Amino acid sequence: EFEIIDKQGHRKWVEQQASLLLNADEPLGLQCIVKDISDKKEAEARLRESQRVTQSLLDHTREGFFMVDREFHILLVNHQARLGMEMLAGHPVSTGMSLFDVMVEKDKPVARANFEKVFAGEQVEVESEYDTPHGKQWIRISHSPVRNAAGEITGAAIVTHYITTARRQAEQLRDADQKIRAMLSSSQEGFYMSDHEYRVLMINEAGRDLVYRATGKEINEGMKIVEFIGAARIRGYRDLIENAKAGRRQEIENMVQMED
After folding, report:
1. Distance set, CA 182 to CA 165, 177, 192 (Å)
2. Among 84, 117, 119, which residue's Cα sits nearest to residue 102?
3. Which H/E stretch holds residue 15?
4. How does pLDDT run across 183-192, given as a tens digit for each residue?
5. Is residue 175 very low, low, confident or very high in pLDDT (cuts 50, 70, 90)?
6. If DSSP codes are grouped into helix, strand and coil, which group holds residue 195?
């Protein structure tokens, strides 16, 4: 294959094939066939450019992305996914490699089971924890089947989301919530917290006891506090909550009849 310039000055790609002509094993000459392959070359160039643009877009996303065929060969992998794989595998990762050559051994049985579901047409999402040189990392892994023009499943597309920060924040919130609940449970003063729809988010035992003694009804988280307030005081209570939502602190005193 080589490039030529035609009579009009246009660049063309041609393919030349040559074969030896023989007569009783004696060479007579050469037969040459020249074919214009400019369209083929242009199509190949467009395909390469499309692949380059696609790879560039994928490499600049925050999520990891890769594709495998049904034999688990890596067909496509972006920068983020490659970094994660190489960190776990300890060696370079490239297309054509088997996904299971870059996976942690303990994760392989679960991964095979997930891919079986994907190749059956399901979408699968899991969260996994990994020990890395940077400490424990949490990743959410989303699997989707890849189909050809005939609708046949030919592989899987995988998107990875690093959720370590979110997991740590959730754990910190749970720890803080447990500490607050432990502190409030030992308090002799009633306490509750509600959202903007008056739904109880948190209430301690002293608060439950006060509500029960005042109304004869048990209150639990998720219930609306306004259902336990008498009609005569509901207007004042709503004003109190609106002031709190506006950032204004307010104290009120009420007299209620308590049951022993």
Report:
1. 26, 9, 14
2. 84
3. strand 11-23
4. 777 777 888 8
5. confident
6. coil
